[in-house]
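Memo to structure team: turn this sequence into structure tokens by end of day. - J.P.
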Amino acid sequence: HIFTSLVVCLVLSLSAVAQVPLNVGVQILKAEDARDWNAGVEALLKSPNMAVRERAALAAGRIGDKRALAVLIDLIEKDDDAAEMAAFAIGEIESSEASDAIIRKINLYLDGKTVVNVELLKNLVEAAGKVAAANPKVDSTKKLGELILKVLDSGKFDKVDLMPKTTPANYNRSLNILALTAIIRARPDGGDVVVAKFINHDDARVRTDALGTLTRLRSKQRLGDIRGLLRRD
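Reply from structure team:
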């Protein structure tokens, strides 16, 4: 009874904050618990309520059924409100069938053809790493690794019109960190060469993560410079 009460309280609090109706929240929790991708959850991804669409997208990722991909891909392409969570869910599902959609959306940002949605780009980069790691022998996922390197190395996002508005410093920090982790997962050819450029980054956290990535890649890039960091950083 205590456990049931705690669950009910949690659902109530989540519903109040996110504006997801209680009955819908319970429906989603049941589907997640059973790992049951069904027509009811799919319908919620098309709800007029933005909070419901976001919550259903998260559920789709937790359930992990690739049958959800078509709707999730539609969300990242057409729904500014739920696109970020949809991209996260795609990464959780880890299916190579999402590769083309991830590549297409990130390339729009690299080509400067659309205003950059900050959180969506970060979630797409993270998803690219997860999908590539889960499908290392699939040709399309090799392109994901190359794309992660382009995002990290392009410098295109330093001074762009960002959506939502944020400080470029904070934006670049979190994007760099996620991209460095994604490189560990995807292990693209030449990844350590690009990562090594970040060991002298202005942000100490980025420098630290770059060093950690080089270690995980068993790289010997710029060992002299790395030894120098022991003395001066």
